[in-house]
Design goal:
The complex is a heterodimer of chains A (254) and B (195). By secondary structure, chain A is of the alpha+beta class. Chain A has 2 domains: 30 residues; 216 residues, no CATH class. In chain A, the strands form 2 sheets. A 4-stranded antiparallel sheet of chain A has the order 2-1-4-5. A two-stranded antiparallel ribbon of chain A has the order 3-6. In chain A, helix 5 packs antiparallel against helix 7 and helix 8 packs antiparallel against helix 9. The relative contact order of chain A is 0.20. Chain B has 195 residues and is mostly helical. Chain B is 72% helix and 0% strand. In chain B, helix 9 packs antiparallel against helix 10 and helix 10 packs across helix 11. Chain B is globular and about 45 Å long. The termini of chain B are far apart. Classes of the chains: A alpha+beta (254), B mainly alpha (195). Chains A and B meet through helix 1 and helix 2 of A and helix 5, helix 6, helix 7, helix 8 and helix 9 of B.
Chain lengths: 254, 195
């Protein structure tokens, strides 16, 4: 054994003299649950809002979407004019200020998911003013999605109106929709992370427990804590925006 | 005195009650310690020795040692107390039996060699206890998560993957954290003019 290794061995041995209070602290340490899901959540919310704005713009340009009511019809056009879109995004950024209270959550479909969410909200998440301020929305984290997978084993799309603030809607995707979305994921224009707050939020919850963020690029990080240290993701192509717009225009399942 | 229910199967006794059993010279102290901490102690020993048979013997020796030490000792954290014993016994056993073999200790020593300043007589510091004091001081200066990661890795000898789960971080983050802490420890030891 080299001299350095021998010294290291002594060091390793001497680590055995660490105070018992420090050892007990490490022995009992478990990361608090909330940060595991809160961080992705906050990031998901921010990310979702951007794409949602894109979708809103498309829908509004089609003239068939009423912001105050919800998704009433599918978009008729997938044309996007960059300038118009950005203008709309900025406007929504100043308007979207939901005042969310857990007891006011209106559950439409996906009851189990929202129940889990409420459990978390009843914990300490809403005591975090920073999260309330930044997040603008409150959905579930990894554990809950895992529960969803166990419970449903399906792919869901979940969205929420920022305007309504308290309204969640969801429905399962059929195989064709899953295939259509999957084929188009990850293709598009990269964007930064400082997107403005927008109209509504969209998540695709896959049966494997992972989530497609609003930028609609699949990411393993979406179910882990390092996820949203996040680099620019992708604004989907218009074709995908149109597909999702049509899905969101459907009535949610109960 | 613990009740039957408390010493019955399925009931994990409080540390203080187990320590009371030691004080009462009640042999159930061993079985209750084993039930509560046996797996953890075996894991520590196995990580060092790489042999379940040796680990089992070390754990048994640990209980014997604890039996001799309590009383007069009255540990507040029985798990930590027993862990220190099993760790020491396992390292001693390693030194006697496995020095020529590559095992868990060597792997850990390779990692820890980052934290050793060159030209250091660690053994001298080890002997006079200054290194131990310095380690405690170093750890007390770290934030909680870092301290926990360091202790889980180098005291409890947990694999990086397991630590990552415990602290809710990725493996790469834990590895980076450990690397930085070793560098930081090295600087700390140098700046403290310990060597």
């Amino acid at each position: 054994m080299s001299d350095k290794k021998r010294k290291s061995e002594y060091l390793l041995s001497e680590i055995g003299g660490i105070d018992e209070s420090i050892l007990a602290e490490a022995e009992s340490y478990r990361k608090k649950r909330s940060p595991m899901w809160l961080k992705p959540l906050v990031a998901v919310a921010c990310a979702c809002l951007f794409v949602a704005g894109v979708l809103t713009t498309v829908l509004n340009k089609g003239g068939v979407f009423d912001n105050n009511v919800g998704m009433e019809a599918a978009p008729e056009s997938n044309d996007m004019i960059e300038g118009d879109k950005n203008e709309a995004n900025v406007d929504k950024a100043t308007e979207a200020t939901p005042d969310f209270e857990p007891e006011e959550v209106r559950k439409i479909g996906f009851d189990a998911l929202l129940s889990l969410q409420t459990e978390y909200i009843d914990g300490d998440s809403l005591t975090d003013e920073g999260t309330r301020e930044q997040g603008k929305t409150y959905v579930v984290g990894y554990d809950s999605f895992e529960a969803v997978r166990r419970e449903y084993g399906e792919t869901y799309i979940l969205w929420r109106h920022v305007d309504g603030g308290k309204l969640f809607m969801s429905r399962a995707l059929d195989n064709d929709e899953v295939e259509a979305i999957n084929k188009r994921l990850g293709i598009g224009r990269a964007v930064g992370t400082d997107s403005p707050m927008l109209e509504f939020n969209v998540w695709i919850l896959r049966g494997d427990g992972s989530v497609i963020s609003p930028y609609l690029i699949g990411s393993g990080g979406n179910i882990g804590s390092t996820l949203f240290d996040y680099e620019a993701e992708i604004i989907p192509q218009e074709e995908l925006i149109e597909i999702i717009g049509e899905i969101l225009a459907d009535k949610p399942q109960n | 005195m613990p009740t039957d229910r408390e010493v019955g199967t399925g009931y994990i006794m409080d540390d203080s009650k187990i320590v009371d059993l030691f004080f009462d010279r009640d042999e159930r102290a061993i079985s209750e310690s084993d039930r509560k901490y046996g797996r953890m102690l075996s894991s520590i020993s196995f990580s060092l020795l790489g042999s379940s048979e040796d680990a089992e013997e070390c754990v048994n020796d640990t209980y014997l040692d604890a039996w001799g030490a309590i009383p007069p000792a009255r540990p507040l954290h029985l798990g930590a107390f027993l862990s220190k014993i099993v760790r020491r016994i396992s390292i001693d056993r390693y030194r006697h039996k496995h020095r020529e073999k590559r095992g868990g200790i060597e792997e850990l020593c390779e990692e820890l060699s980052d934290a050793i300043p060159s030209g250091v007589s660690v053994y001298d510091e080890y002997e006079n206890g200054r290194l131990k004091d310095a380690l405690n001081e170093f750890l007390s200066l770290q934030d909680k998560e870092k301290r926990v990661v360091f202790v889980l890795r180098y005291f409890y000898l947990k694999p990086v993957g397991e630590i990552a789960i415990r602290v809710g971080a990725s493996e790469s983050k834990v590895k980076t954290m450990l690397h930085r802490m070793r560098e930081s420890l090295k600087t700390f030891l140098e700046r403290r003019d310990l060597f």
